[in-house]
Each structure stands twice: as C-alpha cells, then as structure tokens.
Amino acid sequence: MKIFTHEEADDLIPVVRPKLEEIKILYEQVGSLRESVKSAAMAAELGGGGIKNGSVYVKSLYEIGRITTELFQLGIQLKDYSRGLIDFPCLRDERVVLLCWQLSETDKIEWWHEEAEGFAGRKPL
To answer: Which of 92, 88, 107, 83 has the alpha carbon at shortest distance from 25?
Structure first.
C-alpha cells in the first residue's frame, strides 16, 4: 500500500480529476444501458438477443476498468464512481488513515477519516 503525504495527495488532484470526471460520465452511460443489457441477456437465453448500443456499453465498461486500474496503480482508492470519491492512505499520529476527496470539492484535500469509518466519519484536516 502506498502511503501519501498530504502534499503528494494534493498534487495528484489535478491529475486525477479529469479521470474521475470521465469515469462518472462512463458510469452514467453504463447505467442508462443497464435495462437494455438485462433484456438482451434474457432474450439470449431464449435463443434471441442483441443489444442496441452494445459496443458503447462494452467500451464504457472497458474504459472504467482501465481508468480504475490507473488510479489503483497510483495508490489511490476509488470509493464511488458516480461521485468521484477517492481516498489516499496517509500516516497520522503513526497510524494509517485516509485522506478523503470527491469531485465536488476544490483541488485541495480538506478531509480525512479512519479506515473503518468511511465517508460518514470524515473530519476536517
């Protein structure tokens, strides 16, 4: 597990913001096609099938996976695709805590929480 300083995490926000914005759009596309995919899967079981915009669905899933992998390789934990919620492991008082940030916030991380508490346990830095 990568451990970030507050400064290192802040420096990554401008880099990861566009990736999270793209994931959010792709996740919305996947969600909008979910019913079509269900219908096509049921029809396929009966010998029919096919999905309108199937290539868009598959490409969106692929891109979500690719970007998620990039974030993971940077050491960032993606917590919520639709909100662009991420965590950065960090040392605080000699224990690992998580610096917490989401798309609706500024380019500076202002929150943290214990690993077990999650978003609901956020505290100001």
So the answer is: 83
**CA–CA separation, 23 and 31 (whole Å):** 12
How far apart CA 108 and CA 71 sit, in angstroms, is 18
pLDDT category at 112 given cuts 50, 70, 90 is: very high
Q: Is 90 exposed, middle or buried (0-12, 13-18, 19+ CB in 10 A)?
A: buried
Q: For residue 75, give both structure tokens.
A: 């050491």
17-54 pLDDT, tens digit each: 999 999 999 999 998 887 776 665 555 555 555 666 67
Distance, CA of 96 to CA of 85 (rounded, Å)? 18
Q: Which of 124, 125, 118 is nearest to 85 (CA)?
A: 118
Q: Is the pTM here over 0.90, yes or no?
A: no
Residues with Cβ < 8 Å from 119, sequence gap 6 or more? 79, 80, 85, 100, 113
